[in-house]
Structures are given as C-alpha cells and as structure tokens.
C-alpha cells in the first residue's frame, strides 16, 4: 500500500514540476520565473526524499541538504539581481565621495 502512495506522490510531484517548468519558460515577469525556479528546486528535494523512503535508505539525505542550500543561495542571488541589477556590488563607490 505504501509503495502505491509513494508512486502516486512521485507522479503528482512530476506534474507539479511540469507546471512550474511551463511558468519558468512562459514568464511573464522575472519574478514569476524566479519563483518557478525555486519551486522546481523544492519539488526536486521532495522527489529525492520520496525516492529515499521508497528505497529504504538514508544515503540521499546529504544530497537533499546540498540541493536545498544551493536552491536557497540561487534564489537569493537572483532576487538580489532583480533588486539591484547586480549580484556583487562594486567596491570603491564610498571612496569617490
């Protein structure tokens, strides 16, 4: 019974990822694309967690942590880019004043 539910969860997550992929490609704004990319990362974490449960192993937990950290850093960098049009600010602007 649990294997059927896990397969159903994987199918639902795959459909949700396809919907997010559509939003990532279609837009219409950069904010929508960033939100879709972040959501795809979260769905990927869920897929790996379900696979870990399905295979009865804890080997994938480190992968989940790494992908979670990379998703957070990527979303933060893209949000900063939208806000300031630069991810890394150039130093020396304070010295020119």
From TrEMBL:
Q: What is its main location?
A: membrane
Tell me the superkingdom of the source. Answer: Bacteria
Q: Does the keyword Membrane apply?
A: yes
TM segments? 34-53, 60-82
Matching entries from InterPro entries are given as: MrpF/PhaF-like
Q: Which UniProt keywords apply?
A: Antiport, Cell membrane, Ion transport, Membrane, Transmembrane, Transmembrane helix, Transport
What's the protein's topology in the membrane? Multi-pass membrane protein
Keyword Transport belongs to the record: yes
Q: Where in the cell is it found?
A: Cell membrane
Family the entry assigns: Belongs to the CPA3 antiporters (TC 2.A.63) subunit F family.
Listed PANTHER family: NA(+)/H(+) ANTIPORTER SUBUNIT F1, NA(+)_H(+) ANTIPORTER SUBUNIT F
UniProt protein name: Cation:proton antiporter
Q: Which organism is it from?
A: Paenibacillus helianthi
What broad taxonomic lineage does this protein's source fall under? Bacteria, Bacillati, Bacillota, Bacilli, Bacillales
């Amino acid at each position: 019974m649990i294997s059927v539910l896990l397969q159903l969860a994987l199918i639902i997550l795959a459909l949700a990822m396809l919907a997010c992929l559509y939003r990532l490609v279609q837009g219409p704004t950069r904010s929508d694309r960033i939100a879709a990319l972040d959501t795809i990362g979260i769905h990927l974490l869920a897929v790996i967690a379900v696979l870990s449960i399905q295979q009865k192993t804890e080997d994938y937990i480190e992968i989940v942590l790494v992908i979670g950290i990379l998703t957070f850093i990527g979303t933060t960098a893209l949000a900063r880019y939208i806000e300031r049009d630069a991810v890394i600010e150039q130093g020396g602007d304070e010295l020119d004043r």
